[in-house]
Amino acid sequence: MAALYPNHIPITKLSRILLAGSSAVAALRNPYRDDMVAVCSETTACNALEHMRGRMLDDETGRRILNEQPRVNSSTVDLKLLRALPESTLGRQYVNMLNKYNITPDSRRDVKFVDDPELAFVLQRYRETHDFNHLLLGQRTNLRGEVAVKWFEAIQTFLPMCWMAAVGGTTRLSRKRRLRLLQQDLPWIIPTAKSCQFFMNIYFEERLDQDIDDLRDEMKIYLPHS
Fold first, then answer.
1. What torsion do the CA atoms of 97, 147, 161, 8 make, to the nearest 10 degrees?
2. HSE of 55, CA atoms in CB hemisphere, 13 A
3. How far apart are CA 93 and CA 135, in angstroms?
4. Where are the domains positioned within the chain?
5. d(CA 162, CA 54)
6. How far is CA 171 from the centre of its chain?
7. What is the pTM of this model?
8. Among residues 13, 29, 19, which one has the least CA distance to residue 165?
9. Are the CB atoms for 205 and 70 separated by under 8 Å?
10. Rounded CA gap, 168 and 33, in Å?
11. Model pLDDT for residues 55-90, shown as the tens digit of each residue
């Protein structure tokens, strides 16, 4: 099979199975191995990506995103402009998070092992909008916050890697933090993920100057009272 898009690496079914198994083991042993997390997500995601694409095709904005295939990276996001936005906007909150955790819009790996260009974009889009979910859900990037976001994403996308990260991450939390997740976070995260708007149908690039609370209200994401 010839390459179907830039960075695409065609592989056989056997290679896909072997990569999926080995990367899953490596990712569970060390969740910070983003290379293994990426490989596992790409080699196990086919059915989930079809589901995600279907939800996008059922939505006007989702269809436009699929057609235009926007990217979130340093060449498409004007960080200087975002720093000038009011503090309450999605864009200002986004650039504040990048600065706080010393990350960039280019930190997400390119998809390589998905044998369909449009589905490859769907997975790439998921990766590049992940940070917006942290902001919308008011979750930090520590382990507890990451696990909470993964539960949200797993329920909305069905991605196997999200389920692995959600369940595996829960078991890796300290007893105190695990109890907080189970007693405080999940009773809010789970129904929110089921009832709120599908995050893949949000054209985040067009919402950067929007008040983040207004976007939450529009998506029906209601943060719990602190």
1. 10
2. 15
3. 7
4. 13-219
5. 18
6. 21
7. 0.94
8. 29
9. yes
10. 14
11. 999 999 999 999 999 999 999 999 999 999 999 999
Q: Is 218 left (phi over 0), alpha (psi -120 to 50) or beta?
A: alpha
146 is in an annotated binding site: yes
Which residue in this structure is represented by tokens 């997740």?
A: 181
Assign 3-class secondary structure to the chain.
CCCCCCCCCCCCHHHHHHHHHHHHHHHHHCCCCHHHHHHHHHHHCHHHHHHHHHHHHCCHHHHHHHHHCCCCCCCCCCHHHHHCCCCCEHHHHHHHHHHHHCCCCCCCCCCCCCCCHHHHHHHHHHHHHHHHHHHHHCCCCCHHHHHHHHHHHHHHHCCHHHHHHHHHHHHHCCHHHHHHHHHHHHHHHHHHHHHCCCHHHCCHHHCCCCEHHHHHHHHCCCCCCC
- What is the share, in percent, of the chain residues with pLDDT greater than 70? 99
Q: What is the gyration radius of the CA atoms in the chain, in angstroms?
A: 17
Residue 130 annotated as binding site: yes
The answer to whether residues 142 and 179 touch, using CB atoms and an 8 Å cutoff, is no
- Are 57 and 63 in contact by the 8 Å Cβ rule? The answer is yes
- Residues 151-197 have pLDDT tens digits of 999 999 999 999 999 999 999 999 999 999 999 999 999 999 999 99
